[in-house]
From TrEMBL:
Protein name in the entry: shikimate dehydrogenase (NADP(+))
Residue ranges constituting the Quinate/shikimate 5-dehydrogenase/glutamyl-tRNA reductase domain according to the UniProt record: 132-204
Pathway: Metabolic intermediate biosynthesis; chorismate biosynthesis; chorismate from D-erythrose 4-phosphate and phosphoenolpyruvate: step 4/7
Domain Shikimate dehydrogenase substrate binding N-terminal, residue spans: 18-101
EC id: 1.1.1.25
UniProt keyword list: Amino-acid biosynthesis, Aromatic amino acid biosynthesis, NADP, Oxidoreductase
Reaction(s) catalysed (UniProt annotation): shikimate + NADP(+) = 3-dehydroshikimate + NADPH + H(+)
Enzyme class at the top of the EC tree: oxidoreductase
Entry keyword Oxidoreductase: yes
SUPFAM superfamilies for the chain: Aminoacid dehydrogenase-like, N-terminal domain, NAD(P)-binding Rossmann-fold domains
Chain segments annotated as coiled-coil in the UniProt record: none
A UniProt-annotated Pfam family: Shikimate_DH
């Protein structure tokens, strides 16, 4: 990321947003500013701090904002956005969450989910890891973890473990994955970390210093690729432990960078 000069906002500038709670950790405004600059688009993406109880009111208000092009939804709003959109892509419906919304000219909100595509593209380009035929462990069953799990399944992994604090959510995700990929080997065994080629943290554990570990670090080994969806801190406790063991690691930011142009396209900001 470079320190691009700030965009000059005028009456013609189109507005986009990112909705989150908390908001301070988001990286999308600066990453998207680079995309807008590269494409010569007169637009700005601004952070909107909204709590879950205010989400429906905000989205309803944004429908009336004529110079508003769309928004990115992140923690904790992705699952709730599914029900607040006027239309969603099949991918978003499968995953059960929305992370990018286009506001149509008539105010309709159309949602999609791009986290998983971003994760797999980053995995291939940053670590050189090809998921096809490999065994993958995903910690979490929220928006990011579901998207990563579906994208890994779509990429042809041979086995997928979904480990989550709320076991019902892990089992529900496994059920949806089984429907979409009937031949795929699936489990919810959280203790099986060692038995995988790829280990992913798709939970929010690791954002705060006091957080418990998202998985048992002592079961990692040097031959594994270890990825974290968390962007702040850049090096989570999981990534630090994995690097110390000798694993190839993937940080969270490339997952966003690899989907950012797709987000700009979905929101209609670039062709
Ligand atoms: N790099 C990127 O492009 C990118 C994209 C999307 C998200 N992310 C990051 O991914 C992380 C997760 O986001 P999300 O949208 O999936 O959030 P989410 O939908 O709210 O899901 C949170 C997940 O974390 C688990 N979790 C939260 N607190 C926990 C705790 N105290 N103990 C155990 N498990 C806990 C939840 O488990 P339960 O189901 O049991 O509550 C759930 O699986 C965030 O750090 C977000 O910033 C990064």
């Amino acid at each position: 990321m470079t320190d691009a000069p700030a965009h000059r906002i005028t009456g013609k500038t189109r507005i986009y947003g990112i909705l989150a709670d908390p908001i301070h950790h988001v990286k999308t405004p600066e990453v998207m500013a680079e995309v807008f600059a590269r494409h010569g688009v007169d637009a700005v993406l601004i952070p909107f701090h909204v709590k879950p109880e205010g989400l429906a009111t905000l989205v309803s208000g944004l429908k009336a904002m004529e110079n508003f092009g769309g928004f990115i939804a992140t923690v904790p709003h992705k699952p709730a956005m599914l029900g607040l959109c006027d239309g969603v892509t099949e991918e978003a419906r499968n995953i059960g969450a929305v992370n990018c919304v286009r506001r149509e000219a008539d105010g309709r909100m159309v949602g999609t989910m791009l986290d998983g595509i971003g994760f797999v593209v980053a995995l291939r380009t940053v670590t050189g890891f090809e998921p096809a035929g490999k065994r993958a462990y995903v910690a979490g069953a929220g928006g990011a973890a579901c998207a990563i799990a579906f994208a890994l399944a779509d990429s042809g992994v041979s086995h997928l473990t979904i480990a989550n604090r709320t076991i019902d959510k892990a089992e529900a995700l496994v059920g949806r994955l089984r429907q979409a990929h009937p031949g795929l080997s699936l489990s919810t065994d959280a203790a099986s970390v060692a038995d995988h080629d790829l280990v992913v943290n798709g939970t929010s554990l690791g954002m705060k210093e006091a957080d418990a570990p998202p998985l048992d670090f002592s079961r990692l080994s040097a031959g594994q690729v270890v990825a974290d969806a968390i962007m702040d801190p850049v090096m989570t406790p999981l990534l630090k432990a994995a690097e110390a063991i000798g694993c190839r690691i993937q940080r969270g930011l490339p997952m966003l960078q690899c989907q950012i142009e797709l987000m700009a396209k979905h929101m209609g900001a670039i062709a």
